[in-house]
Amino acid sequence: MKIIKRLIPSAVAACLVTGASLSVADTAIIVSAESSISSVDVDRVAAVFLGKRNKIDGVSVTPIDQEEGQDSREEFYSTVVHKSASQLNAYWSRLIFTGRGLPPDQVSGDAEVVEVVADDPDLIGYVSPGAVDDSVKVILVVQ
Amino acid sequence: MVKPNAKLALLPLAVCLASTPAFAASNAELEQRLLEQEKKIKKMERRVKSTRNAVKQNRSRLSDMSSRLKINGFFSAGSTLLDSKDLELSTFNIDDEYSTSPVTKLGIQMTFKVSDDIDVTGQLVSKGTDNYDVTAEWAYLSWQMTENFTTRIGRQRTPYYMLSEYLDVGYAYPWTRPPIEMYSLPLNNTDGIAFLHDFNAGDWTFGTHVYAGEGFGEVDQLEGSFRLQNRGISFTVETGPWAMRLAYSNSEVKVDSKVEGGAGDLLLDGINDLLVPTAGILNSGHPLVTSTTDIEELPESGIETNYLSAAFTYDDGSLLVIGELSNLEVKDFVQPAGDGGYLMVGYRFGKWMPHVTFSRFYTDAKNDEQVQEYIEVALDAAEQSSAIETLSGGLLPAAVVVPNAIGLANSLETLVQEQESVTVGVVYDISSRVKAKFDVTQYSSFGEYNQYSIDGGGDLVTTELDGYGRFGLSDDADATDIDSSTTIYTFAIDAVF
After folding, report:
1. Could you tell me if B108 lies within 8 Å of chain A, comparing CB atoms?
2. Is the domain B70-496 a CATH 2.40.160.10 member?
3. Complex ipTM above 0.85?
């Protein structure tokens, strides 16, 4: 039941927002509804969240992360970035302590990601598709 | 924020109530009063509005402060020992008794965003191996000049090798300590300027790091310290699971201070004041003396060193492979310089990662030949000491030359080194920010070296002894009978926060 409950709104949201096929998605990559970005591939999203890239289609983006322990976060890093939480921390510690970069700012969860992304056309975030509303635009759904 | 609004909403009502007894008053009077009240309301509204703005500003200033200042840290603790009574690893304070200080480290890093493209970073580190003295390992200002180009000014870790910049951050690498065959340079920081350039092309990321500045280091075995003018460049290429790195560094070293009568002082004085004049006599062509080689005086400044290293990492999330090779060259000076390298393979099974590493170091032929020249002169001097006494007109008496030359030859012998190690270890993720590690490393293949003495008949005796690589002999060790290998056991907990 739980899974079905989760999946139904996800699928509906994904279809509504992207107008795409009937795919059942687990992670939606979102930008502000006002952003000019319309789509992105998985590798680029991973590169943006690892601080390796800061542009999508020539548009500057700033990733916004979720706090550790959030389901969406675990889903995102395992399916999009392909790193476990400890691999991710090892990766960032090599950058932080050599002054080469800082991890993205974090917010508390899906709802807050939608809220801040809607407000700022530079931000890019990930949420479970059920959290999406029309203030933001889904540019990729990853299963 | 709701309350002042509610009060404001009640105001007109209050005004009405208040004015009821004055019903008889004239219209003009009433209008006047209403006007006054309206003015009051406007005033209060304005006040509420400005209070609200002030609160808003304060809040944004607070969140601004917290987003401008980032604090991160790392911590390691654990215990270690080695299993030989003969050998010790003095650079890490490791001997045959359990100790925690070789593993304990605490680092705090603060980065303050000064403006959109300028930030200031300081990293303070306290290590058990340095008696927990707190030192600023990093202290620099970073200026992001363009999207891909950053300039840094101040103190930075010198990127000699792949792990050099985060050597203290145990969490960032799989071992409890990186292979000592390679990571045992006595210097870490460069105070100066660095330029960092990164760019992407397709799935490839390219990085270039150029730096120049002044460094400072201490060599415990030589009981001295040195300064160096340092410059170097490193290139990194990353694509998918692969990362590759090439680095070159060139320094000009000068002896900064040495303990009088210490190992380095005795070596320098012995070579420059005794061996060099002796070599001059031996090479004079006089029929009383013969020599196979000649030597130069050891400089105390302008010593050129070159570091070259190449490394790769493969990490697909499960399989982790790291390999690195390096060469250190020290020109016109006697130092154990040569080639080092390692290959590490690990595989992640959920929270566990077992790994194995092979590592090797040896002083190269160039270093060994250079050291050998000084040894030969010392041995020639000891063997022809009476002729030297005569030819020097008694300035270099045999009674002084023999023991000093033999002593020098023996200490020069320790500058030819080799060793190998095999590490088997496991890493366990306790949480996403804490790891437990256990390593067992066996060190062996130390080679042999010669020890020289003069027997009762005045003849030179050469004894071949077992070497001990980068280790040192403990006080109780009998150099003629030492363990041919030793194993270091280390347990550590590493955290980042």
Report:
1. no
2. yes
3. no
